[in-house]
Amino acid sequence: MKWYQSLFRSKNGLAGNDFRAVQEKFGFFLSLLEKNNQVLKIMSDLEEKSQGDFLFDLNYISTNLGTIRFGLRSMIEDMISLGGQDYEPLRDRFAALDAEIDRLFPGSQPTEKDDLIVPLPEISRERFRSVGGKNAQLGEIARLGIPVPEFFAISAWAYTHFVESNGLQDRISRRLKSLDLKSVNELERVSREIQELVVSSRVPLDLAEEIRRSAAELSQRTGSKRFALRSSALGEDTHFSFAGQYATYLGLRYDELVDRYREVLASKFSPKAIYYFLSHELKESDLPMSVGCMVMVDSAVSGVIYTRDPVRSDEDCLIINSVWGLGRYLVDGRVTPDVFRVSRQTGDVLRAELS
User: Fold this and answer.
1) Residue 346 structural domain
2) 331 within 8 A of 304, measured Cβ to Cβ
3) Based on the domain organization, do 345 and 251 belong to the same domain?
4) What's the CA gap between 209 and 215, in Å, rounded?
């Protein structure tokens, strides 16, 4: 505070360099407040759920713990930037507490051994650790009797089988361990190296045969000759979204599936994905990639529904964004959608905005 007051006691007011210093300090202060609020909110949520009827698992605790760790580490750096070396001992204290948490609550969870392929009737929330959040939710929707294009899941265990068969884990871990996230060039280089490792590796014969067999059965049952491959990594679509960071391939022929499957796995290591999971204190080995193989729908119209208005959640309506043709043109922003506000009570269209 004395440093701050001394700036304003100058007869000539704030000089240019002094003003920039104040701006910089104020930025650190705002960052500190923001991270503090985020951490307190998560801690409050954890405490509330631990005392109520909310059911949660180790994955829920682990993901929140990672966010708290990231927030606290950022707060310490902001405090050092604001107050100088007097706050540097906080780094060692945090490291000691972090190590104690690791001892009491190890974050790594080995991938559960499961079938390489999980058919739709067996996909549910109970198989989350095997099929990932996206596939698990689709399985739950199908169980409600809501129409879902037929699909099967290539399990997280299949990913582990692929990685172990090609001896990839150590090579991936070494590259990630030495990565400086602040360097864009280094991030892109490491991403490129790891993706090349993955796409140049061979899909184990038993896994390739299972993918082809399941796709052939799916094609025979539905009459569809085209497929979509969609990522469903563990951690995706949970408290961490990974939105738009993994690959999806549409309109694939039967003979393309195995090669494209490998490319979906490689997309786990895109620059955006690497930055996201490392900056959120997530361990790469805790995020095995399940993949959904779904029959293609000959879509006339596609869309996204928000069951609550994301901007005005108190309004009792849902929002529909729709486009002609495939939904990918909507989600990647290439086409401006038509937007409909629909009453949740009556189903009436309250307002339509046509592009």
Assistant:
1) 301-353
2) yes
3) no
4) 10
